[in-house]
Design brief:
InterPro entries (chain A): DHS-like_NAD/FAD-binding_dom, ETF_a/b_N, ETF_a/FixB, ETF_asu_C, Rossmann-like_a/b/a_fold
Keywords (chain A): FAD, Flavoprotein
Helix content of chain B: 25-40%
Number of helices of chain B: 7
Structural class of chain B: alpha/beta
Protein name (chain A): Electron transfer flavoprotein alpha subunit apoprotein
Helix content of chain A: 25-40%
Largest sheet of chain B: 7 strands, parallel
Oligomer: heterodimer
GO molecular function, one term (chain A): flavin adenine dinucleotide binding
Number of helices of chain A: 8
Function (chain A): The electron transfer flavoprotein serves as a specific electron acceptor for other dehydrogenases. It transfers the electrons to the main respiratory chain via ETF-ubiquinone oxidoreductase (ETF dehydrogenase).
Radius of gyration of chain B: 21 Å
CATH class of the largest domain in chain A: Alpha Beta
CATH architecture of chain B: 3-Layer(aba) Sandwich
CATH topology of chain B: Rossmann fold
Order of helices and strands of chain B: EEEEEEHEHEHEHEEEEEHEHEEH
Number of strands of chain A: 18
Largest interface: A-B, 93 and 79 residues
Number of strands of chain B: 17
Number of domains of chain A: 2
CATH superfamily of the largest domain in chain A: HUPs
Distance between the termini of chain A: 52 Å
CATH architecture of the largest domain in chain A: 3-Layer(aba) Sandwich
Largest sheet of chain A: 7 strands, parallel
Shape of chain A: elongated
Strand order of the largest sheet of chain A: 7-11-6-1-4-5-12
């Protein structure tokens, strides 16, 4: 039987939605076990992880402050010695952990995957490259596989047979590393759902002229997160954490609404694989219209309030 | 918004830095795959744009130190020399092109092995302080190489730096993660990757472009580096691309011009698709 270990991503002591997506995905590949780096979580977390199919939660208390990738990877290696596949969420930090883990175990690695399946006993992954204009299928030839999966690529769902996952405490000896973390300044969590995980993203660019009121209003109405183009973050209109693009956050929501964003290749690379793309821009020649399922050539100040009012009216019945 | 501190070297009198640069298809070109590998040809290829930040960081550190050398290193076929030529135009002192048919098809671990061997060759002749890389290559974007290279060399790893300082035999970086801003330091030599927030890359000027033409590019093979060909290349790769195809264009795209009802049309589209 294939054992699939899933590295839990937690925020404020709770496993994130992408973690539950990854455990749901792990069920299609074998027997999921969750790995929790740090002190044991609240039992309620075990229950939720169990609902999605995790049979065990392997807790590595020694990894409480293992922010350096080499230390986190050593902790993960100790907890996943029997695993054929290790899944994690594709973040910059996890890509580094995946790399270090692969060097410890000889595993093959794919990051930024949009899907994973077993084909003839081999792990195969799907990714998009070149600003999401190409699909690539990769086979992992090594015996062990590590896959970093993008959020929003699997719909989290409860397993048929569920029960609280049992807790297993794993001892790990973490290596000394030369990197010293001198300070950690937490970034306040955004209100609502984080950008990378949001099912809906409403982004504003140069066309907002720095006023995000309407963009936020539409995002709130649709239950989404607020994104931005590089232009807007460079102007200081909104913080870097909101930047969607190849060097910011890559998003694949069910709906992406681009407001006053021209659609430079760097931006498109961070959102082009989204489900439905909608664009509003005053410039009919903006490249964003080439990839939008629905585009409106017009002024944000006219189009957005009218759309918001119409959706509210529709909901009110 | 916080302004990223410029790279600076306060006490070192001589900085020796190697920058890795990657040859990638131009972002604006029709990028494609051939036999499971990215098609890279001289016609539409260039130095990976994010590597310009790495070159800039290295040049700024050297200039602040007053003296030193900056090397640009690339690995790839004949066309890849364009990447180090671009680095020479930006002002690096030396260019190295590792070119060997045995490297083709390497995964990130094979590539890191080859680059590490080349770094050691330079380092053994005259010690390096830093290897600087870009944050990712805009063709594959995996961001795994800096970590794999640091591990292969056994050097400190300082990744995703939006600010970099070198002082007293140690490098210190600021990195902006989604949940926290970290300050991380480590002793030299270190592998540092810089983001596009770290600096604004310079443009090559006419004088440098002319000077770059006559600068030599050292070409090294796996044999020159003492790398066993069976340990790299397609045969040693842990991952294999089995299929690559262009994504089909979106069908039934609609663009309307707002003549007073654009917002309603947008709302109706979302409602129809069950998205609002």
């Amino acid at each position: 039987m294939t054992t699939v270990a899933v590295l839990v991503e937690s925020r404020g002591g709770e496993a994130t939605q992408p973690t539950h997506e990854a455990i749901t995905l792990a069920r299609t590949l074998g027997t999921p076990v969750a790995v929790w780096l740090g002190a044991a979580p609240d039992p309620a977390q075990n229950a939720r992880l169990g609902i999605h199919g995790a049979t065990e939660v392997r807790v590595v208390p020694a990894a409480e402050d293992a922010r350096q990738p080499a230390r986190a990877a050593a902790a993960l290696a100790a907890a996943t010695a029997d695993a054929d596949i290790v899944l994690m969420i594709s973040t910059f930090v996890n890509k580094e952990i995946a790399t270090r883990l692969a060097l410890l175990t000889g595993a093959g690695v794919v990051v930024d995957a949009a899907g994973v399946e077993l084909v003839d006993g081999h792990v195969e992954t799907l990714q998009t490259v070149f600003a999401a204009t190409w699909n690539v299928r990769t086979r992992i030839a090594a015996e062990k596989a590590i896959v970093a999966i993008r959020p929003n690529t699997t719909l989290a769902s409860p397993a048929e047979e569920t029960g609280a996952a049992t807790t297993v405490v794993v001892d790990a000896e973490l290596p000394e590393v030369p990197e010293v973390i001198a300070s950690v300044e937490p970034v306040p969590a955004p209100e609502g759902v984080p950008l990378a995980e949001a099912p809906v993203v409403v982004s504003g660019g140069r066309g907002t002229n720095g006023d995000y009121t309407l963009v936020r209003e539409l995002a709130d109405l649709l239950g989404g997160a607020v994104g931005a183009s590089r232009d807007a973050t460079d102007e200081g209109w909104i913080s870097h954490e909101h930047m969607v693009g190849q060097t910011g956050t890559t998003v694949t929501p069910a709906l992406y609404v681009a407001c006053g964003i021209s659609g430079a290749v760097h931006h498109r690379g961070g959102m082009q694989a989204s489900g439905t793309i909608v664009a509003v821009n005053i410039d009919p020649d903006a490249p964003i219209f080439e990839i939008a399922d629905f585009g409106v050539v017009g002024d944000l100040g006219d189009v957005l309030p009218q759309a918001i009012a119409h959706i509210e009216k529709h909901r009110a019945g | 918004m916080e302004v990223a501190p410029a790279s600076s070297a306060a006490t070192l009198s001589r900085m020796r830095i190697l920058v890795t640069v990657k040859f990638v298809p131009d972002l604006q070109s029709q990028r494609s795959f051939t036999d499971g590998a990215v098609t890279r040809t001289g016609d539409d290829g260039t130095m990976n744009e994010l590597d310009e930040n790495a070159v800039e960081a290295a040049l700024q550190l050297k200039e602040a130190a007053g003296e030193g050398e900056v090397y640009a290193l690339t690995v790839g076929g004949d066309d890849a020399v364009a990447a180090v030529r671009k680095a020479l135009q930006l002002g690096v002192d030396h260019a190295i092109h590792v070119s060997d048919a045995g490297v083709a098809g390497s995964d990130v671990f094979g590539t890191a092995k080859v680059i590490a061997a080349a770094v050691r060759k330079v380092h053994e002749e005259d010690p390096l302080d830093l290897v600087i890389t870009g944050m990712a290559a805009l063709d594959g974007l995996t961001s795994m190489l800096p970590t794999a290279l640091a591990a292969e060399l056994g050097w400190s790893q300082l990744t995703l730096a939006s600010g970099l300082t070198v002082e007293g035999g140690a490098a210190s970086i600021v990195r902006h993660l989604p949940d926290a801003h970290e300050t991380v330091s480590a002793p030299l030599p270190a592998v540092v990757s810089v983001t596009d927030e770290a600096n604004t890359p310079r443009y090559p000027n006419f004088k440098l472009i002319m000077a770059a033409r006559s600068k030599p590019v050292a070409t090294w093979t796996l044999e020159d580096l003492g790398v066993d060909p069976s340990s790299v290349g397609a045969g040693a790769a842990r991952t294999v691309v089995v299929d690559a195809s262009p994504r089909p264009p979106r069908e039934n795209r609609v663009t309307v011009t707002d003549t007073g009802e654009g917002g309603v049309a947008l709302a109706d589209f979302l409602i129809e698709r069950g998205l609002a």
